[in-house]
Amino acid sequence: MSEGMVEFRPVNNKGLGKNAPSAFERTFKAEITSIHQLTSMENLYRMQIIDPSERKGFSFEPGQFVMLELPGIGEAPFSITSSPLRHGDIELCIRKAGSLTNFLSRVGRGTRVGIRGPLGTGFPMEKMHGNDILLIAGGLGLAPLRACISYAQDNRSRFHNVDIVYGAKEPSQFLFTYQYDWWRADDIGLHITVEKPDDSWKGPVGMTTGILDQILASRGSSFHENTYAIVCGPPVMFKFVCSMLTQKNLPMQKMFVSLERRMQCGMGKCCRCNVGSTYICLKGPVFDYWTVMNLKEAI
Amino acid sequence: MLNSGRTYLGVPVSRPKVGFFDFSSCEGCQLQMVNNESTLLDFLALVQIVNFREAMTGESDDYDIAFVEGSITRPDEVDRLQAIRSRAKVLVALGSCACFGGVNQLKNRFRDLPWVKETVYGGAAVETDVVRPLHDVVTVDLMIYGCPVRKEEVEKVVTNIAIGKEIAYPKYPVCMECKANENICLFDLGEACLGPVTRAGCGAWCPGSRAGCWGCRGPADDPNMEQMKRLMQERGISEEMILDRLECFGGFCEFSDALRAEMSKENP
Amino acid sequence: MKVNCNVNVHHLSRVEGHGAIGITIRDGKVERASWEVIETPRFFEAILSGKRWENAPVITGRICGICSIGHTLASIRAVENAFAITPTEQTGNLRLLLKHMETLQSHVLHLYFLAAPDFLGAGSVFPLIESAPDVVARAARMKLLANDVCDCVGGRRLHPTRTVVGGFTMLPEKKELSRFRERLIAASADLTQTAELFTTFKIPDFARETEFVSLKGEGAYPFIGGRLISSDGVEKEEHEYRGMTNEFLVSQSTSKWARLSRESYAVGALARLNNNFAHLHPAAAEVASLFHLKPVCHNPYMNNIAQLVECVHVVKDAVRIIDSLLDAQWEEPKQEITPRAGRGVGAVEVPRGILYHCYEFDDSGHVVKADCVIPTGQNHANIQLDLEYLASRYASEGMTDRDISLLAQMLVRSYDPCISCSVH
Amino acid sequence: MLFKVIAKEELKRLFELLASSHTVVGPVKTGRDRTGLPLYAFDEVERFEDLSLDYAMTKIPAKRFFLPYREDMAVFEMRKDDWNKKVDYNMDRPRIFFGMHPCDINALNRLDKVLMGETYPMPYYIAKRQNTVIIGIDCTPRPYCFCRSMAADTALHGFDMFLTDIGERYFAEILSDTAFNFLRLIKTAEPAGEDHVLYKKAAAARNERFVTQVDTTDLMKILDMEFQSDVWKQWGDKCLSCGTCSNVCPTCYCYSVEATVDLKLTTARKTKMLYSCNLIDFAEVAGAHNFRPERHIRLKYRYYHKHRGFVEAYEESLCVGCGRCGESCLAGITVPEVIASVRSTL
Ligand SMILES: Cc1cc2nc3c(=O)[nH]c(=O)nc-3n(C[C@H](O)[C@H](O)[C@H](O)COP(=O)(O)OP(=O)(O)OC[C@H]3O[C@@H](n4cnc5c(N)ncnc54)[C@H](O)[C@@H]3O)c2cc1C
Ligand code: SF4
Ligand code: SF4
Ligand code: SF4
Q1: Looking at residues B102-128, what average pLDDT do you find?
Q2: Distance (Å, rounded) from C-alpha C241 to C-alpha A145?
Q3: B31 touches chain C (CB under 8 A)
């Protein structure tokens, strides 16, 4: 090289850690192995990372999400809804909502998709060991909670009471109905409610907060000492739920919520998910309620 | 829609039958399709053109997508458009005339059709109505903005229809594209520009030529018209000039009508 | 003798705009031979009324998508003439270059996509894509070149953005111009092959004497401004265009008709060539001789060939213009404009013939009165008379209705009519 | 830090030597504004004469050479029902940036913190940043500059060499061996005492020209307190939501991603385009829910990100005080005025 020539410095591509530049657009190719229609709007997609070693290396925590990519169609964040024990066998519960998700509803088994992740923070399940957990979900919010439920099932002895409070608009919108008996069989309390009942509906009617109220009333006054709450659903819902729990003295640090924001990169660069200047994709989507309270315009 | 035999990500790709139709217009938007020299073959692999009077003899009433250019200015056009609507699965308004009335709608500002006819045709009997965009007459499924439309945009729409992907337009104004192209802002040059309120997607075509935007693509989502007027006035650009641009292609008619009314109140 | 014939073409295809042909012959008598224009009028002249001068080119450019550059330039010229502005040499050169490339793209479009399918027995260019891909590719190549130059000089191939009263908003890069120079030179081969292709076509042997009107070439083959001339010997100044056009209304058409010394006259490539043959570039004249085309040719089908000849001319001339632009130092692109009261006419030879824009302004530069006379409008009467003649002549030669219909359609198409433009 | 002095004609020689074997980018004149003042931009330069080293301020910052306005992040080769993702960082040769002002250098330094930091460093940026040699140059502050308030008026790192005009010569600070090797190609001298005097004089003269100031004392807290203040609405009424501020800002890096398929259906692309938090759909999600539907809320967010959040995370603001956004804003929204208005509602 002659004097005064500047040498080209390639970007270091070695290493697969979070800190290597190559981690940025690293996509695992996965194949859709089954598609299961849950409701008229939601499908459950099971997919498997094709490369066996990548599949093994893929581990995540309940609450974390992946970016799912269909080349030329789009990429979007989805919470992993399957059990963390299943590694690169991933289940996503996806609602038809826009360009990518509508296209996805037309693809078949065998379709190859791109997966980036796992991304974001998860629910701190280990911290909750030895306690009661209250899982409160509204609508599609059940998707990430299902990973927690699987975790609780797989580690049932590590928790005392496990209760799910789950509300949907209409009976036809309940997700994962085929699993309810199985959950109950593992001694998980399942309390479901609808806002708009139909003729066949026999269960409770109303908001999740109504059921929650009943459950809390049945618990002793010291319930806040040994309970953790995980809340996921539309912003209005978790605002009500969390303030209700706060009133019952549950510390804000023991309530976890998952925030939803627009995301493009999932890696703290595109800024689309920023609240204030907190990247929901990096610091979240799972936050304790205290942190959320301190985020301007989070809810 | 016909299956093309191809798939995209395993999903069958359709090869829709398309027709091009024109009403009162310069037919420039259709011409943009013929102007596809470099991509025409790929375009024709995606769609089957069954109706394109400007380019071919022979027509068919069997089509999935109708690309309709031009505005509606005569009763017979209403009938023809309705017939097209009843046959097409998807009706696409092609260009500013179809979307907003285009330059043709400038005659509406006189609110005096007999005078308009008299000016051009003397006493002769000529039929003409108030100029209307397509969506005033039939349901329009998609709009492709611009005077003229950009062929890249039409191609993108057609590709998306073929593979069944949703079509989204920029909601932001032309300034975004203008800055990204590093154009000199027309206001720096002392000229007027509607870029801050006009829907992007043209690639800041006019500002890229150091010519101000005339708003041919109509308003962006939630345009700040008050500020637009204010900033033009601060820079000594006359209300008339603002009006000229706002009303030129019809996309801003809601605002230009108001401005015209305001101005005539000031100096009746 | 053909006794009965009934031809009805409601929406003539492969032309710009809506027109209908009808021929009825009963018992050997031509009962009807008509060329009807059913396009909806758009009232551009009324639209302009009261508008500031700056609007004129932007709005009237939209009269026609195919010759939007020509309309824009005619409009600009009319405004400049009204305000007594003389464009700089640089502006003149750039405008002519732009004009040439519009002529090229329009002629190529017409020759290959609109006219050639008739000679090749196809309904459109689409089947030719498979059967004669090299022919289509050649046409696309020439059109692309012309369009690319228009993008570069005018800002956009259709409804140009850089052309304004006083000059240009922005100048092309000289680097780009020299690249186009190379491509223009390389286009000679395509033009030669185009000429060869057209020699294989059977041009109908048909002639009807008529008058041809165009700009008068003074020193060069004319395109933008100058004196007006007819093959019958009428000569006028640009601003006296009304004396050339004598527009009148007819019931079968929403477009106005025109006449001069006879019942009708023709404008277009053939008219230009008939009136200005001496000014053709030698290479273009050579192509003309290949087809035995020389003035005064009265076969309207030969307008196709005249267009071909002009393609050669504009390509050669474009190289000359680029050379002189490259040699010159760039000046300011635009002159200052001071509006004033007055009347201005801009006559421009667009692909389909001579086009006039005329505006009257008040002292603040607002349009008091506007008038646009479109080439196709001027041709309508001539087309009508040609059709009548065609009906009477060919009806006697034992042809089928289909043959007559095709010949009639080809006849109208030869004029390359731009109907929506004529009903502006 | 090493110092050298360079005669002006030697700099020309250096440019020519470098330009003969590299892509060189620098400030050039692109036209004149309505008052006749020249307009500048960064562009590729081949001849030293085309370079305007005494440029005032470019309308568009140097950022686009590091974060292009549009850039393909990945190209997919679509095969029958399968695909192959190809990632290219879109930088294949080193580039030399000749003449960058301190504010633009500092802007890159601040971008480095996010884009080259610990978590998910962004290779597209790194490739360009690592492969751009930066020769900085001092500036003459404009009335709208407030870089001094944002601690960005001098660049301490993030460049290879920095030049200060001291009359006949340039006073050069050398930060990298690359720059050091460049200087071996031309005649340079060790600065003499007189050069030091001249340098300090130049710096003092420059400092005197800063007229606009922004008070950043306690700004983080004040912004938190004034989150609901009405001044935001007033600015929001003016805001055109056109994204110009972000586009001309040397530190705004937000982006959007678009996926497209070509006409042949054989290639798909994932393209990134710089976005702006002021655009209406910045925080819109599926189902048309918009987390920031109003103009003033979006405008406010831009200020919170720059002057509060970033400070919290990195102890400096994401604004270098170049004043470009205010200069380009057609509604006349300037950082100094906005911040002053927020403060005065106290
Ligand atoms: C952390 C997280 C977890 C999620 N988990 C699930 C889940 O388990 N199941 C599910 O059905 N949905 C989930 N969503 C919402 C899901 O991301 C959106 O429905 C999806 O982005 C819609 O994409 P689209 O291309 O179909 O819609 P479009 O409206 O066409 O969106 C275009 C782009 O906008 C962005 N976008 C749009 N809506 C959202 C949104 N709500 N959130 C984030 N980005 C968005 C995406 O980048 C997307 O590519 C989650 C969102 C987040 C942030
Ligand atoms: S020229 Fe027009 S579009 Fe471009 S930045 Fe200026 S105002 Fe916006
Ligand atoms: S810049 Fe404006 S007038 Fe020009 S094409 Fe774009 S939207 Fe139309
Ligand atoms: S002054 Fe404006 S443009 Fe400059 S760094 Fe600050 S926010 Fe960005």
Answers
A1: 76
A2: 81
A3: yes
CB-ligand 1 contact for A105 (6 Å cutoff): no
All residues of chain B having their beta carbon less than 8 Å from the beta carbon of residue C123 are 56-58
Residue where a domain terminates, one of A89, A119, A149 = A119
| Cα–Cα distance, B43 to B11 (Å, whole number) | 19
Q: Which two tokens stand for residue D215?
A: 């008070």
> In chain A, how many domains are there?
2
Is pLDDT of B54 > 70?
no
Q: Do B180 and D33 touch (CB under 8 A)?
A: no
Kindly state if the Cβ of D63 falls inside 6 Å of ligand 4.
no
Q: What is the nearest CA distance from A128 to chain D, expressed in angstroms?
A: 27
- Subunits with at least 3 CB pairs below 8 A relative to chain C? B
For D73, the token pair is 């992040």
User: Which string of DSSP letters, residue by residue, matches C43-82?
Assistant: -HHHHHTT-BTTHHHHHHGGG-SSSHHHHHHHHHHHHHHH
Counting as contact any 3 or more CB pairs under 8 A, the partners of A are B, D
| A42 bridge partner residues | A95
Answer with the one of A72, A96, A119 that is the final residue of a domain: A119
**pTM for the complete prediction?**
0.92
Residue B163 forms contact with A (CB below 8 Å): yes
Strands C265-266 and C342-350: unpaired
pLDDT tens digits, chain D, 346 residues: what are they? Answer: 899 999 999 999 999 999 998 999 999 999 899 889 999 999 999 999 999 999 999 999 999 999 999 999 999 999 888 999 999 999 999 999 999 999 999 999 999 999 998 888 899 999 999 999 999 999 999 989 999 899 889 999 999 999 999 999 999 999 999 999 999 999 999 999 999 999 999 999 998 888 888 888 888 888 888 888 889 999 999 999 999 999 999 999 999 999 999 999 999 999 999 999 999 998 888 877 888 889 999 999 899 889 988 888 888 999 999 999 999 999 999 999 999 999 885 4
What's the CA gap between D108 and D111, in Å, rounded? Answer: 5
Element (H, E) at B69: strand B65-69
Residues of chain D neighbouring A70 (CB-CB closer than 8 A): 259
Based on the number of CB atoms within 10 Å of its own CB, is C231 exposed (0-12), middle (13-18) or buried (19 or more)?
buried
CA distances from residue C332 to A284, B211, C390, D16, D32 in whole angstroms, order as listed: 57, 15, 54, 30, 12
- Residue D165: phi and psi, rounded to 5, are -75, 115
Stretch B225-232: mean pLDDT: 93
Q: Which residues contact C80 (CB under 8 A, 6 or more apart)?
A: C86, C87, C165, C166, C344, C346
Secondary structure (3-state) at A195: coil
pLDDT of residue B124: 64
Of all protein residues, whose CA lies closest to atom 7 belonging to ligand 2? B195
C-alpha–C-alpha distance, residues D271 and D257, integer Å = 6
DSSP helix/strand/coil, B75 = helix
Asked whether residue A224 falls in the same domain as residue A277, the answer is yes
Asked if residue A129 lies in contact with residue A159, where contact means CB atoms within 8 angstroms, the answer is yes
In terms of residue numbers, what domain contains A264? 125-293
For the domain spanning C5-205+317-423, the CATH number is 1.10.645.10
Measured distance CA(B90)–CA(B64) in Å, rounded = 6
CA–CA separation, C377 and C355 (whole Å): 10
Instruction: Name all domains of chain B by residue range, CATH numbers in brackets.
Output: 7-163 (3.40.50.700), 174-266 (no CATH)
Name the CA radius of gyration of chain D, rounded.
22
The nearest CA of chain C is from the CA of B189 a distance in Å of 11
The sheet that has D70-79: what strands, in order across it? Answer: D82-86, D70-79, D267-274, D255-261
Backbone phi, psi, residue D198, to 5°:
-60, -40
- Rounded to whole angstroms, the Cα distance separating C168 from C334 reads 5
